[in-house]
Write a structure and sequence with these properties.
Structural class: alpha/beta
Number of domains: 1
Strand content: 15-25%
Radius of gyration: 18 Å
Shape: globular
CATH topology: Purple Acid Phosphatase, chain A, domain 2
Distance between the termini: 38 Å
Helix content: 10-25%
Order of helices and strands: EEEHHEHEHEEEEEEHEEEE
CATH architecture: 4-Layer Sandwich
Number of strands: 15
Largest sheet: 9 strands, mixed
């Protein structure tokens, strides 16, 4: 398994994995008074270009395919099916749904949609991360989740702050895992990998802030203080406990 340099995407074997594309997110901008034309076509072309770059014909999307929750917007009803028709011309697609993906089966009756508890892809087990993964993840080298749209908040000497998308890699806690799943006493644990959001229209969670807890049950199993943060270009920033920022 390897990260695609400069992109919030990874390859496991010959399969390209992305997450959190949030089709229809433009609606939130329009409701707030900002003119935001649909970006769905550009997003499809970006994914197809990435597939060509990585020479893959297989795509796995780890939720959230659509944005509105609960329900489905008129934009999503129109654009989600056409988006997948465009990608399906060249790619074999699997979807592991996220918490925004209610009614997705009705929109995509011909796309392979797996249970939210996840699926195995090569040496990795992948799921969105808003629910407990299947115990099958314990037999893989990596548990790959999304859901939190991880960011790192950076601050310069003048106090200016900004956010950067980041990969998070973490060891997992054995005790809470043993309480949730049946573990052999010396069974090796997979490494937890948290994917950044593929969409550029949605916000995220600053993993190095201390004022909020990350979303979902999976990250409660992570040794987050010692988790390592990497920028999209591969730059290693350090462990999260070394990157903590004050919230005031």
């Amino acid at each position: 398994m390897r990260f695609v340099c400069g992109e919030p995407a990874l390859l496991t074997g010959k399969t390209l994995v992305i997450a959190d594309i949030h089709l229809g997110a433009e609606r939130d901008y329009r409701v707030s008074g900002f003119r935001m034309p649909s970006q769905t076509g550009k997003l499809a072309e970006r994914i197809l270009a990435l597939a060509r770059k990585t020479k893959t014909k297989k795509l796995v999307i780890l939720g959230d395919v659509k944005h509105k929750v609960p329900g489905t917007s008129i934009q999503e009803e129109k654009e989600v099916p056409s988006f997948f028709r465009r990608l399906s011309e060249t790619l074999d697609i699997d979807v592991v749904p996220g918490n925004h993906d209610g009614n997705l089966v009705k929109l995509l009756p011909h796309v392979k949609i797996h249970p939210p508890t996840g699926m195995r892809v090569g040496e990795a087990f992948v799921c969105h991360g808003h629910t407990w993964p299947s115990p099958d993840f314990l037999d893989t080298a990596f548990l790959v989740v999304s859901h939190n749209h991880p960011l790192i908040e950076l601050k310069d000497r003048l106090g200016f702050r900004w956010m950067e998308k980041a990969w998070i890699r973490s060891e997992m806690k054995r005790k809470p895992l043993a309480e949730k799943y049946k573990l052999a006493s010396k069974q090796p644990l997979p490494e937890l990998v948290v994917m950044p959001a593929f969409s550029d229209l949605v916000g995220g969670f600053a993993m190095n802030r201390t004022d909020k807890e990350p979303l979902g049950p999976v990250l409660k199993l992570a040794k987050l203080g010692a988790a390592r943060a990497f920028l999209l270009d591969g730059t290693f920033l350090g462990e999260l406990r070394e990157l903590r920022v004050k919230t005031s």
